[in-house]
Amino acid sequence: MTTTSTHAASLTDLLKWTPEGEGKTRQRSQLIILRRPDDVTRELPCVLVYNFLPALLARDLLTDLLRETPTWHRRKWYLFDRQVTSPHTSASSVATEPQEPHNGGGFYFGGSKVRVRPYLPTMVEARRLIEAKVNCVLAERSRNPLESRDPWQGNKTIANCYNGSAEGVGWHGDRLTYIGPFATIASLSLGVTRQFRIRRFPGVQAQRDPLASPGMSRVFGIDLPHNALLLMLPSMQEEYQHSVPRYTPIDPHPLSGNIRINLTFRYSRPDYSADHTPHCHCGVPCELRAVTKQEATLGRYYYMCETDAVHGQGKCSFFQWMDSGVTGSLPPPP
Ligand SMILES: O=C(O)CCC(=O)C(=O)O
Ligand SMILES: [Fe+2]
């Protein structure tokens, strides 16, 4: 474990996709590099496995995905009144086997239906091995009542392609839409090594560790080489944010050069499918998230309109707590 001191940009700066360290530096942070899987498991709700897939499968999967990346897209959405474009390309895939009909209801992002692709044969092979690993890990843990009782299935993936060090992803927690609370996300890295960073949501940090200095956050860095599998376990999306910082040094990979591809396998739960998700006044399924800022409601789950993310017209007033069904209007975004 290595510790250095750095400055991380505020959440708002990072959402604007400024490189880490650029822009306003209101919060001081300590960067702790985790090099060993044991350190990762001790510090975070994560499991890291190096060289996870058989080497030939990892190579074939990377080759297949590299062929596909020219057809992947940059997501566009609105942040306040400004349109922003993701600094990497992505594609979503769903398993379309007959026993997975709930996936047929479709997926929405920012109020628009997401184009989904079928799994490639190499993704199907990787999925089976990842499912076995995830279910082994989950069997050793006690389950939260809100977690699915089903065996975990990697039936949906989001693939990201980072072409060179100028591409990355800013601080965020993954939406819980379709995957539900206390989700497990299995993240497979292919190609060039990039650093994955993790820190507590500031509101969660203040509650969990009230003695920590308020202006200081601990940021964990994990270098993810080709064929590393990182499992983000239940509570990770509720308590921590993650990012792939830009402008970090890159050591080219023999097959992919400066490109890193990341595949996140998720369990799209039948009980959280689009058909079971409340629809907002715009008529589209809501986004599901946990409260990560307000102390009084920290950890509660809520459904909210997310259409302005794509259309820039402002959210409709729909708001619903997941647990109690209480509805109301949200305060304006910060
Ligand atoms: O590329 C990665 O490792 C992270 C991708 C990610 O955060 C996401 O797809 O939500
Ligand atoms: Fe993410």
From TrEMBL:
Residue intervals of the Fe2OG dioxygenase domain: 153-269
Pfam families in UniProt: 2OG-FeII_Oxy_2 (PF13532), Zn_ribbon_GRF (PF06839)
Family annotation (InterPro entries): AlkB-like, AlkB-like_sf, ALKBH3, Oxoglu/Fe-dep_dioxygenase_dom, Znf_GRF
Signal peptide: none
GO molecular function, one term: dioxygenase activity
Keyword RNA-binding: no
UniProt record, GO biological process: DNA alkylation repair
Coiled coil segments of this chain: none
Record keywords: Metal-binding, Zinc, Zinc-finger
Span of domain GRF-type: 280-325
Identification of the protein by name: Uncharacterized protein
Organism: Dimargaris cristalligena
